[in-house]
Batch of 2 targets.
Target 1
Amino acid sequence: MAPAAGTSGTTTGKNEVTPTLSVSGINWWTTEDELRDIISVVGVEKNIKEIAFRENKINGKSLGAVNIEFIDIESSEKAKAKLTQL
């Protein structure tokens, strides 16, 4: 898996910063457990609020992208730093 971490601290239409990390370029077979294992290296896996894989609406297959929502922006930034090293 060689993910390309997008920006954490994503802004909404109201210019509010959110602690969501967008990761693209991952293999379609990547699991939630694998993502948690990678993020556990920086010690913020318990701060994950939700992991949402982006899927094709017709066939349900992964699009190779995922949104990882954390409870705070600091955790999101730590995970981003680790994922961009891969």
Note: The longest strand covers residues 62-70.
Target 2
Amino acid sequence: MRPRRPWRVRRWETGCAATSTAGYTRRASDLSSAFITFAFFEQASDPMAVELYDEHEQSERVRNWLRENGVSILMGVALALAGIFGWRQWQDYQSGQAMLANEYYAAIQQELDAGSTQAAAEQFAAMREGVGEHAYVALSGMLVASALTDEGEVDKAGEIYSSLLDSGKWASLKPLIRLRLALIEIARDRGDAALALLQGEVPAGYQGLWLETRGDILFDMARFDEAADAYAAAVTQLRGEGRDFRQAETKLDAVQSAIGRAAIDGPENS
């Protein structure tokens, strides 16, 4: 029979056993954590594993981003392609219109050189329908209207000038068109309409011609004093512009002579 250990020894052994059990549990937990940590660091230390992880993460991010923004991207690309295609189509159209306008302009000049004013007028009508408001249209119309005026077809010429004036294009040519239409109105004995065309601010570079044309209108209306003032102002303006003023000066002399004759004839007629 084994002798019993003293109670102090038994208490110590019991404490050791308890301590050993808890220690084993802690050690197992520590070993598990250490293994997991080791496995993680071992995987992290493997470049291939890190690279595969990064590629997977990046591909997932890309897929998510495309899912959220794919429709917007496709719409943007479609709009960009449509804009490029539309711009090229517009450029091709404009180029084709310019070539067609040039051909019409050459044909009209050829008809006018041959003395075929009516044929040129027909070409111009077709040009307006086919080309629209290209710059060559205004130039061609002015050529045809001038030829019609020379042949006494002032009504047809006036229609062309009026249509050109009503257009929203050709701002640089509008002053010259207004001057020519004013002269047409004089030929139609419509002095008030002619003066109305010259109302308002005078375009830069046209002051001398404006004053001279106004003198022509007033002279035709037998308003000699006003015509003389307009011609005198035209002579001064044209001389200052360095342009030929002799024609305006001749008109001034003529209207002054008319005023003098009217002064002489006045008492006799009374």
Note: DSSP finds ten helices and no strands in the chain.
